[in-house]
Structure formats: C-alpha cells, structure tokens
Amino acid sequence: MDAKIRIGICGYGNLGKGVESEIAGNPDMELGAIFTRRRPVESLNTRTDAPVVHLDDVMDWTEKIDIMVLCGGSKSDLPTQGPEMARLFNTVDSFDTHAKIPEYFKAVDGAAKEGGKTSIISIGWDPGLFSLQRLYSSAIIPGGTSYSFWGPGVSQGHSEAIRGIDGVKNAIQYTIPNMAAMERVRKGENPELTAREKHTRECYIVAAEGADKNRIESECKTMPDYFADYDTTVRFISDEEFEKNHSKTKHGGNVIHHGKTGDGNNQMIEFSLKLDANPEFTASVLIAYARAAHRLSKEEGTGGAWTIFDIPPVLLSPANHEELIARLL
User: Fold this and answer.
1) What are the backbone angles phi and psi of residue 50, rounded to the nearest 5°?
2) 74 near 126, Cβ under 8 Å?
3) Strand partners for 6
4) Three-state DSSP state, 30
5) What pTM does this model have?
C-alpha cells in the first residue's frame, strides 16, 4: 500500500478547520501538522491531535509535509504567503480575488519553479469548479454567453476582507443574486448585465468599542475588487446578534451559458451548487486537488503553478483509471 499523503494546513480559520475535518474522509491522506501565527500555539483549539506549529518554524517541516494547503485570506495573506510557501512546499490554495489571479499565478509560478515545487492555485468552487464550467460551456457553444450568479449565501473571502478593516471585531457578508436578472438569462434574452445589476451585498459588522462606524462603512463600501462595484448595505450589530443569527455559512450559485447551434437552435447549459457549509465544501475541493498536486509532484517537468484548467480529472480521484472507466464513464 502506498504511503499516505501528508497534508499540512497553513491557517486555522473556518477553511483550515474544514480541511482538517475533510482529511478524515480520505483514507489515502493524513494530517501532518497545523501551522499558525498565533502565540502560544497551544491556545489553538484543534479537533485532532496533530502537531500545532508556529509559522516561524515551518522550515523544519519541509521534509515532513507532502502538500501544504494554504487556508489564509486572499486579501492580506495569500499574496505574500502563496509565493513564500511555494518555494518550500508543494501547495494548493483558494486565492479568489478574480481580477488579481493572473498576477498571483505569475508570482506563485516563479516561486514554485525556483523551489522545484508544484502549486495549484485558486481552487474552490469559484474560482474553481465554476471556472471549469465556464470553460467547458464556452468551448462547446463558442458563440454563447456565460453568466455567473452567486448566493444567496456567505462569501468567505468578502467576509475576511471586511474583518481586515481597522476597528472591525467580526463581520459576515451575504451575496444576494438578482433573481429577475437570472430569469432573463434562463429565458435566453442574453442581457448585458453589470456586476451591480447581477448582485447586491449585505454586510453585518460587529464594531470594536469606540470604533468609527462611519469610517468602517465607507471603507467597506469603497473597497476595490470586493464592494466598490456593487450596491452594498452595511448593518452594525452586537456580538450576541452575530452569534445568534449569523453563524451559518450557507452559499451556492449558478453558471448559466446560453447560445445557439446549427440552424439557430437555442441551447442552455446550467451548473449549480447549494451548500450548507461553504468552508467545508471548499475544503473538499482543495483536498481533491491536493491529491492531484501530490501525483503531479512525482512527475518530471511539473514544477511551477497550475490552475484547475490544467489538471486531468483522473488525478483527483483515489480510484484508479480502470475503476473510473468501469464505474463512472
């Protein structure tokens, strides 16, 4: 039997906890260690007995971890942490600031090649599974138009971005799709829709005592790549209300592609997700691509950064090629 893939978790927020729980459902994997910036590391209340290691000591683990799953935030953590870790480990991450993915890819690609490592970036459901669906749809119906709708639900990346504002104690952000716009797309109207016309954003914020709420609201609503292009509502609430009404992480969305084939026949492709726990589902996607990264890392010439577009699906499954053909094809 092959040795288990040793997974490291870098960052222990909601996503890191999701990765920790999902490893248990993958018998070809084991949790090697959890890496954190917190001090003391003993204060981290983990769900397993895996070692907890401060990030300052990560160099001691380069031979003990096969794949490092990066669970930091896309706004503040991954732009620096992604390339740094890619020099030392094979990595998988869920960098999700769409507009900055090209520059992030270049940074990670250079670092991974320098270190002789394999990194798969921007893995999750969007970017990730939705990206793949957009590619499939546009290749199959090249003259069509793709639309992506998210929610209603909690965006981890947007919530993390709000929590990075000075004076914010806690925050959660809900992405709300415009259902009328979605129905126009499903009817084949092919409307031209701006970001503002497709979604609204609702933010619930617990402010630190004495914090300037007007400044917090202004910084949130004008934040580029996150809120500036949307109608955004900000509501300030108490710790108690946050815990009572905003502790769930449901999310989901739809990719809809409409176009014509042949003699003008209408064709529509739709891919949807309905998620009770966004971090756990994203963690599940990361774990599957961690398996692919491990397999790729064993092959010559695979160093550098990869995206979901580049990964053969057969590398994701613990089943072998023959089993997949017999069972799923």
Assistant:
1) -65, 150
2) no
3) 30
4) strand
5) 0.92
